[in-house]
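Example record

One chain of 326 residues, shown exactly as stored in the release files.
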Amino acid sequence: MHSHSIEQWTHDHAFLGEKHDENERRTWLVVVLTLVMMVGEIVAGSLFGSMALLADGWHMGTHAAALGIAAFAYRFARRHLGNAHFTFGTGKFGDLAAFASAIILGLIAVEIAYESVLRLMNPVPIVYGEAMAVAALGLAVNLASAWLLRDSHDHHHHGHDHGHGHAHDDHDDHDHDHDHDGRHHHHDNNLRAAYVHVMTDAATSVLAIAALAVAMTSGWVWADPAVGLIGSVVIASWAFGLVKSSGAVLLDVRADEKLERVIRARMEAGDDRVTDLHLWQVGPGHCAVLLSVVSDKPKPPAVYKRRLAGLKGLSHVTVEVETCPH
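Predicted structure tokens for this chain:
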């Protein structure tokens, strides 16, 4: 009886996204597709003496490395899901990979800007037909990759509340939340990072085709490097956004201010007052909340936890109750 009772109050810390396995498979497919494209371009460039193919091939290699980071992060998070060394599970590994990918993306932006400035200062002859064919091929591969990584918004579906040493009778009515209405969701930053990588490559391909067409018809050879500079600014802005969103998760920035207000409103009933509230993301679609309640007539922690029933995404809830001395 006693062992059964203990098991009733224990819980795991599996805070992976709802589509974790599916997203992992998609990412590996894109890695394979990118590597095949990379090898094909390098081999073709070597056989036919095409610098455009060689350059784009090695450029694809950079994206393959970044996508590989995303894929390995999915695999690591899944394989170490039950590892007790990770206090709140492995849900944040995707954000760590996204942060690393964003840094790589920023370096790519710097590289493109540097090469564009060099070409503006020292224009080089361009074989327009070949360059446009390479850009079109790259665009096709990236559009296929983007299709595989589509729907990057990972909606959570777990609404189980957990508390250390407290009753677990607050699992009712978790499928509906009239205050929050299921609108509280978190993106899978790891999948988003992979998606941004292929979209930046697709965007640069589109810009390259447009710039080459202008240069070929008008003779404005500066159009190609000028558009390259524009592309580098766009890529840098996307990288910054990815750094900001993934870094916020890694640094436990407040996960959702609206959800926090809803929690506070539900907890402060009668003489109960929230004196401390921490809400942070522990995985895609999973939040942990730690709060302290002070009251003239405190109730059992389970009573307070039941007030949060129905709030989706609260996967780990801890409530501390204090008695007001006055």
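Notes: Residues 288 and 316 are 5 Å apart (CA to CA).
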